[in-house]
Amino acid sequence: MTTICFGGVCIPYTAVLPLIALVLKWFAHQLAIIGFLPVSLAKKLGVQPSDVKATESVVDGILGTGSSKVGGIDRVSNEDSRVKKIDTVEGWKYELSSSNGQRPVVAKFTASWCKPCKTIDPFYSDLATRYDASFVKIDVDELDEIAAECNVAMMPTFVVFGGKERKGSVSGANEANLERLIREHCPKRIRA
Question: For residue 128, what are the domain limits?
Fold first, then answer.
């Protein structure tokens, strides 16, 4: 029988592929736990949401971040952050209805595994401090029904709503296009 030997350990060729598959599955599992894989793929790998949440709380403890949740809306507790994370369909409906068409709602459709989404996050948070609108963030893996309802095909996608009416949208992590969309539909914040 043909074998591969490493030092004093010999492995038959027939065992190499299953061994590689086992190592790759373990590696993918680790990536899913720390949030680098989509939630749907993580579930297929058997990663429980509690595993991911436990890791997030450890990371939050290390980084000193935290959040407080009110009615399906997660307010990130950074000092300058005016961006709310929508966690439920009810939270999304509440956000749209509370604006009453008077104050625009700017929704960022994102995913935890999306690198361009993370790249544009600081700019999006900065826009939230400069424009008078309700800025929200929606994870498409967690709330795919809202993403489908809003015809989101790629991440990041930014959509401006006036009440329940869609006013405009832009896709991609292009800061100039995003600011143009916000400037067109949202008034500047008056600084005191």
Answer: 66-185
Which of 62, 80, 105 represents a domain boundary (last residue)?
62
CA distance 162 to 103: 7
Q: Model's pTM, two decimal places?
A: 0.59
| Domain presence at residue 76 | yes
Answer yes or no: 117 catalytic.
Answer: yes
Catalytic pick among 10, 114, 150, 186: 114
Task: Name the percent of the chain in helix, strand, coil, to the closest 5.
Answer: 45, 25, 30
Tens digit of pLDDT for each residue in 94-108? 888 887 767 899 999
Q: Point out which residues pair with 120 in neighbouring strands.
A: none
In a domain, 169, yes or no: yes
Whether 157 shows a pLDDT value over 60: the answer reads yes
Query: Does the annotation mark 150 as catalytic?
Result: no
Q: Are residues 101 and 173 in the same domain?
A: yes
* Active-site residue, selected from the candidate residues 10, 117, 150, 186: 117
